[in-house]
Design a protein that fits this description.
Helices cover 40% and strands 28% of the residues. By secondary structure, it is α+β, with helices and mostly antiparallel strands. It has one domain: Enolase-like, domain 1. It has a 3-stranded antiparallel beta sheet. Helix 2 packs antiparallel against helix 3. 32% of the residues are buried.
């Protein structure tokens, strides 16, 4: 299932996450720090969605209350709730 999440409080604007049978199959960010986000996407691909959500949830970027990894965790949570 492909899910689109509009990010809030980050440099990225959107994140697309594809989850099948509880496994993260693909992630793509729109905007943000290109190299870092490509690295995050590569690291989470093939991992259990619940585990990715647990590891990334609550990570902050500098003085911000969220981060791109935290927004990915929120996207996964919303996708799994559907």
């Amino acid at each position: 299932m492909m899910y689109t999440h509009m990010t809030k409080g980050t440099c990225s604007r959107q994140v697309y996450v594809n989850i099948e049978d509880g496994i993260v199959k693909d992630v793509e960010f729109v905007g943000g720090c290109d190299g870092n986000l490509k690295g995050i996407c590569a690291l989470v691909k093939g991992q259990p969605a619940e585990e990715v959500k647990a590891r990334l949830s609550g990570i902050k970027c500098g003085f911000k209350q969220t981060s791109c990894p935290d927004q990915l965790a929120q996207a996964i949570e919303a996708a799994l709730a559907k």
